[in-house]
Specification:
Blueprint lengths: L1 H11 L1 H22 L12 H39 L1 H9 L4 H41 L13 H28 L2 H5 L13 H22 L9 H31 L2 H4 L4 H14 L1 H35 L4 E5 L5 H7 L4 H4 E11 L5 H5 L8 H4 L5 E3 H11 L9 E5 L3 H11 L4 E4 L2 E5 L20 E4 L8 E11 L4 H17 L2 E5 H44 L1 H9 L4 H37 L10 H32 L2
Parallel strand pairs: 3-7, 4-6
Antiparallel strand pairs: 1-8, 1-9, 2-8, 4-7, 5-6
Helix pairs in contact: 1-5, 2-3, 2-5, 2-6, 2-20, 2-23, 3-6, 3-20, 5-6, 8-9, 9-11, 9-12, 11-22, 12-20, 12-22, 12-23, 20-23, 22-23
Length: 658
């Protein structure tokens, strides 16, 4: 009999379970998708360095899954509390008919198991399908052989997902049993008569608090952007975060009092249709959920920053790689050994296998040290550091390299050029070059051609880390000591990928002979792989935060709908049409969902600027930020907007109940 009652309750209360079911299915699917990456056969054809990155990524995701399981577990328990609140009167009727609390607990247990199994099965099916799409995306980002792609089901991930969510369901059952055991019959029967007490705030105080919170927020924004150079300690950074949290809390606290005052002064708006009722409901919602709305706002802020920065990194890295790694291979040595001879000794024929071969030297002289360059700029630097010689490249070599690298070439007559692309060092060097200081080499004076550094580099890398070197006329380096030698070239073979693997396998032997080897494909795959790893980890956390934020706000809205059901019944008795009531409900939910999102978007404008400053020295460009914002907006519309629509549909059904 109880089993039949369980099935009937599930069918009858499906509209109540919609948010609960939606959250469970999403949680299971996302959990499976990100934890099954290691099992995809598409990764079997990756290079060793890329496989190492995949292993690192899966370990990070596996560790994060523990945190994610706690977040999803909290959501499941929180959602279940809403269901119990929704059905308190029903449980009270059961008790008046002679049903014991143990039997009610068994009903809830049966419903939880059924809903859990259904959501687990559907979530796993969705996860299994989407994981194949995810594996294709991963494979393309890591430059894998897609011909070997096959459909894969991960047994280990499926078992892991079932175990994690099984533990969550057990906790739900435990909390349900405790909650039902504490219920009293009178409280259950009168549950729908209880409303939360609403306190009216002083409008003048709300105005002062609102002005203060906006000022505090502007101050924090300034400190993390224009004034970021003053944040030299961890405490000062944490203090700005506290300011942001406090300002957000106070904004929501003061809004509930200000909204009524502002709108009531607009008589034509306030008394139109159900606007007065809608306004008071919105004010009540904000007034009773200030802290939770603040947390939701900050979670949405983190999500937007994570998504925007991650997608920007992905979009820009490939473009920057073309700039910073323009040749197929670069080999350097600090010894006097011939690079070509060492390559030949290792069965690498430079003449046949390479084209556009360029060899050049980098010189150093005690006539041009960091002390000569920076003077007294670094007062706390050691004498050993200041006596380090600057790197010098002769003009003819640099111009040949510049043509290969697609960089500007120069004409110099008793002049020099400082080339640098590391922003932090460039800033200092530009300050020193403003007066075009002279340098002396081999007894001759040279003046700076420009009053600032020129963009460029010698060594191929994945980031803008060239701290600077001097380009001087050829005669200036006569009799100077060669500090290092370089060979840069492109492959003269039909299959560059296979030949690059051959070169990479030779690197240990070449390193033993004093050669350092960088190849475009190796740098590219490692950098793109690191970027992909960051993106997938960020996506995992971002989606979980987004689901959590949307689910919490949806459940709070549904709880409000339960509490206010009597108000809507009274409106119907007064002759208000269902269309007007539905429109009022839609506006309430839309505004309630919008408030934390709007403030989160404002926060993220400055948060993204902070991210830009933090990674300014890397190979990441924010030129593609608009595209990243559009992708982020699409995800927000899909998930956050999906929760909004489901919440409206459920709330509409709740207030229709007689």
């Amino acid at each position: 009999m109880l089993f039949n009652l369980v099935l009937k309750n599930i069918r009858k209360s499906f509209k109540d379970y919609a948010i609960y079911f939606f959250t469970l299915v999403l949680g299971v699917a996302i959990f499976y998708i990100f934890n099954s990456l290691e099992s995809q056969t598409v990764m079997l054809s990756l290079t060793k360095s890329t496989k190492d990155l995949i292993e690192l990524m899966t370990k990070i995701i596996s560790g994060l899954s523990v945190f994610v399981s706690f977040v999803l577990g909290f959501l499941i328990i929180y959602a279940n509390q809403f269901l119990i609140k929704r059905r308190k009167k029903e449980f009270g009727i059961y008790m008046t008919l002679g049903m014991s609390k143990q039997q009610i607990s068994k009903i809830l247990l049966g419903e939880t198991i059924c809903i859990g199994l259904i959501s687990l099965i559907i979530g796993l099916l969705i996860g299994i399908i989407l994981s194949q799409v995810m594996s294709i995306i991963v494979g393309s980002m890591f430059d894998a052989d897609m011909d070997k792609f096959v459909f894969v089901f991960s047994n280990s991930t499926c078992i892991k997902t079932v175990i994690y969510f099984g533990i969550m369901y057990l906790l739900v059952m435990f909390f349900n049993t405790i909650q039902i055991g504490k219920c009293k019959l009178i409280d259950l029967l009168a549950a729908d008569k209880k409303n939360e007490e609403i306190k009216i705030k002083n409008t003048f105080l709300c105005s002062l608090v609102f002005i203060f919170s906006i000022s505090l927020l502007i101050y924090a924004y300034y400190n993390v952007t224009a004034g970021a150079s003053n944040l030299d300690t961890a405490f000062s950074v944490l203090l700005q975060m506290f300011y942001g949290f406090l300002a957000t809390f106070l904004i929501f606290w003061s809004l509930s009092g200000l909204l009524i005052k502002v709108v009531t002064s607009l008589k034509g708006v306030y008394f139109k249709n159900l606007n007065s009722f809608t306004l008071k409901e919105i004010s009540s919602k904000i007034n009773t959920t200030v802290f939770s709305t603040t947390i939701i706002c900050l979670m949405l802020f983190i999500t937007i920053c994570i998504f925007s920065t991650a997608f920007t990194m992905n979009n820009s890295t490939k473009n920057v790689m073309n700039e910073l790694v323009p040749a197929d291979i670069q080999i350097s040595t600090n010894t006097h050994n011939s690079i070509k001879q060492e390559l030949l000794n290792n069965k690498i024929n430079v003449t046949e296998d390479f084209k556009e071969v360029l060899e050049f030297n980098v010189y150093q002289s005690n006539q041009l040290t960091l002390r000569d360059t920076y003077g007294n700029e670094f007062t706390d630097a050691t004498e050993k550091y200041l006596s380090t010689s600057e790197e010098i490249v002769k003009l003819s070599d640099y111009n040949k390299l510049a043509k290969l690298y697609n960089l500007p070439t120069y004409n110099l007559k008793d002049e020099y050029v400082v080339v640098c692309n590391y922003e932090n060092i460039k800033y200092v060097r530009n300050n020193l070059l403003q007066n075009k200081p002279d340098i002396f080499l081999n007894g001759k004076q040279y003046r700076s051609k420009f009053d600032q550094c020129q963009d460029g580099f010698l060594i191929m890398s994945s980031s803008h880390m060239n701290g600077g070197f001097y380009v001087v006329p050829d005669e200036a380096v006569e009799n100077m000591e060669v500090s290092s030698s370089y060979l840069v070239a492109n492959y003269n073979v039909s299959n560059k990928k296979d030949y690059d693997k051959f070169i990479v396998n030779k690197i240990p032997e070449l390193s033993d002979n004093g050669l350092s080897v960088n190849t475009r494909l190796d740098i590219y795959s490692t950098t793109i792989g690191m970027g992909a790893m960051v993106i997938f980890v960020d996506l995992y956390l971002g989606i979980v935060f987004l689901i959590s934020s949307a689910a919490i706000i949806a459940l709070k809205e549904l709880s409000q709908s339960i509490d206010n059901k009597g108000k809507y019944q009274m409106l119907r008795k007064l002759g208000v049409s269902n269309k007007m009531i539905s429109r009022s409900l839609f506006r309430q939910i839309a505004i309630y969902f919008s408030f934390p999102l709007i403030l989160a978007i404002i926060h993220s404008i400055f948060g993204i600027q902070v991210c830009r400053i933090m990674i300014s020295s890397t190979a990441v460009s924010f030129d593609s930020l608009i595209n990243s914002i559009l992708i982020t907006a699409s995800i927000l519309i899909l998930i956050y907007g999906g929760y909004f629509l489901v919440t409206y549909w459920c709330s509409k059904n709740i207030i229709k109940d007689e």
